[in-house]
Automatic annotation (TrEMBL):
Protein name as annotated: DUF4249 domain-containing protein
Taxon lineage: Bacteria, Pseudomonadati, Bacteroidota, Bacteroidia, Marinilabiliales
Database matches in Pfam families: DUF4249
InterPro entries reported for this sequence: DUF4249 (IPR025345)
Organism: Maribellus luteus
Length: 267
């Protein structure tokens, strides 16, 4: 089961956060097949991957036919341009390690149309430390330990985060949990993010990944979360998350930096 949550961090609340429930005006789209563009520049992967697919229902997994034959380029504010190669049907790649502070522009030409998007790579916020605590009784599972991620939010900078926590052997597994935060009320403060999506047990090696997101990437995740909460995912007329892509297209062109740390759970 997919889990998607957004949180606005509140000063003075260390481990428990209330979901952000903004009123979002999202226009409904028809169920005609649409182009889906997905990809993100990161500082942890040297290879940029842009995937092009089509789907009648964007929110149903496993039904995206690939879209081959596109011309895709990514340029940056320093004058560099990368032409992506189609390495498999609908999958386009090139060597492009992301750099903090750089701005990236995506251009996709396919089926007689051109789509563009811009994104700025945020500056990395580092994990300060990791801690564990016994799983509280009020959760639906118990008997193990929850993992906390501690960080210092930079003062005067609006930051957006995604937290990922997994066993070390599951690090590359497909994501089925998406938890994002903004620092609207805790700017410049010490923050603790508690991962209560699953518990861990003694001798588990757990990897904590803190992603600092571009604002447009956060907005895409945030509005996707709102659609899940409203029950519109999988409906006959699904709405679209907010995207930075031009034109009548689904998906996003994202950017994020990554800080990782590891802990072995002890008794």
């Amino acid at each position: 089961m997919n889990t998607i949550k957004t949180f606005t961090l509140l000063l003075g609340i260390v481990a428990l956060f209330t979901s952000c429930r903004d009123i979002i005006d999202i226009e409904l789209d028809s169920v005609e097949p649409k182009l889906v563009i997905d990809g993100a520049v990161t500082d942890i992967n040297d290879t940029l991957v842009i995937q092009l697919t089509k789907s009648v229902d964007y929110f149903e997994p496993g039904i995206y036919p690939p879209v081959p034959g596109a011309v895709i380029a990514v340029s940056d504010n320093l004058g560099n341009t990368h032409q992506l190669n189609e390495t498999s049907s609908g999958v386009y790649t090139d060597y492009l390690p992301g750099t903090e502070g750089n701005k990236y522009t995506l251009s996709v030409e396919v089926e007689g149309e051109k789509y563009t998007a811009e994104v700025e790579m945020p500056y990395k916020v580092l994990i300060d430390s990791i801690s564990v605590e016994p799983t509280p009784d009020y959760l639906e599972f118990s008997g193990g330990y929850l993992v906390n991620c501690h960080l210092h939010d930079p003062f005067g900078v609006e930051n957006f985060y995604r937290l990922k926590v997994s066993l070390v052997n599951d690090l590359e597994e497909p994501d089925d949990v998406l938890v994002v935060y903004d620092d609207a009320y805790v700017n410049g403060n010490q923050i603790t993010l508690r991962w209560d999506e699953e518990q861990f047990f003694p001798q588990d090696t757990v990897v904590v990944e803190l992603q600092t997101l571009a604002e447009s990437t956060y907005e895409y995740y945030r509005t996707l979360s709102a659609l899940f909460e409203s029950g519109m995912i999988g409906s006959a007329n699904p709405a679209n998350p907010i995207t930075n892509l031009s034109g009548d297209v689904l998906g996003y062109f994202g950017a994020y930096t990554v800080s990782r740390d590891t802990i072995i759970i002890s008794e």
